[in-house]
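User: Last request for today: this protein with flavin-adenine dinucleotide, please.
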Amino acid sequence: MKIQDNILLAPYTTFKIGGEARYFAIIKNIEDLKDGVNFALQNSLPFFILGGGSNILVSDDGFDGLVLKMEIKSIDFRYLEVKLPNEGGVEVVAGAGENWDDLVVSTVEKGLIGMENLSLIPGTVGASVVQNIGAFGVEVESLVSWVEVFDIETQKIKKLNNQECNFDYRTSLFKKSKNLIVLRVAFQFKKDAKLNFDYIGIEELLSKDKITVQDVRDVIIKIRKERYPNIKDIGTAGCFFQNPIITQDEFKELQKIFPDTPHYDISEKVKIPIAWFIDKFGWKGYRKGNVGVHKDHALILINYANASCEEVQNLTNEISKEILEKTKLKIEPEVVFLK
Ligand SMILES: Cc1cc2nc3c(=O)[nH]c(=O)nc-3n(C[C@H](O)[C@H](O)[C@H](O)COP(=O)(O)OP(=O)(O)OC[C@H]3O[C@@H](n4cnc5c(N)ncnc54)[C@H](O)[C@@H]3O)c2cc1C
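Assistant: Here's the final one, the structure of the complex with flavin-adenine dinucleotide:
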């Protein structure tokens, strides 16, 4: 494993923004990872695990530490033992540096039901559990059976079961505990799994009598290509903000000012699709200099060309300020800042 100096990070991110990493290394296996971590510890450097760079915003000043780009790859299929009639199925174990959509393709090709709604999400398998990715009514936590991590504190490899991962909306134990680096993830495909096309817009697109997992993937890809900008052509990190989750009392207060606020009830709380307010306050399609809000999707910020991190932050601060002043909703970024 080679440690490189002063590597520009912008090309390693889908936002195409950010300065240099003081040190940078490609991680192909656990030995590379241990060497990288030891280099950082011995030199008292901060370090950052980089996947596909599709959910990060890097500072214009770069990162004065070591970036470890995760490229540990493998996809293994295991057929699970059937002890009871409702048991069995397939377990797929994938390396953290595997491309997420390549994994989805390999499961869909085998006719396994579970990942198809998460088709075409950019990034890596490791980050999928860090961020608990979700789309079209499915979150990755529903498929995870265990996650293997390298614990920097103990320098040991350990396996965590689904419960221990503390999955929640776009977060997990791994997002909060920076000492845990994801190495492999095991996904379980149940024998009796059913296709999920409850999400509005999918069902009417499926006109066939017998719908296959490939048909669902095809529809999801079609919808995503219409809704999301192509990361090959334009800089973006997907949805910039998280949807706020508030109490029922806070929601009642909000409804007094905005009676038609869309919402989803989740246990005792209420999730607000914040794109609705960003759109309502006129930000959709707004552009200032090199940055702007996507014309069709109010949560997506765009780097039109050579935008700086500062420009993005100025825009997000303006949006969050207006939302807070008018609705009292405090919105947090989904995107991770690296500075
Ligand atoms: C066009 C577009 C569409 C998107 N659509 C969706 C969507 O529908 N649903 C959704 O949920 N997300 C979506 N995203 C966001 C993004 O794709 C996901 O969050 C993805 O999981 C990020 O993966 P990554 O490998 O690029 O992570 P990175 O951006 O490289 O890193 C994200 C975070 O994970 C950490 N990390 C990465 N790998 C590891 C590891 N092995 N161990 C420990 N920590 C690690 C990083 O340190 C960082 O904190 C979209 C993004 C884009 C650009």
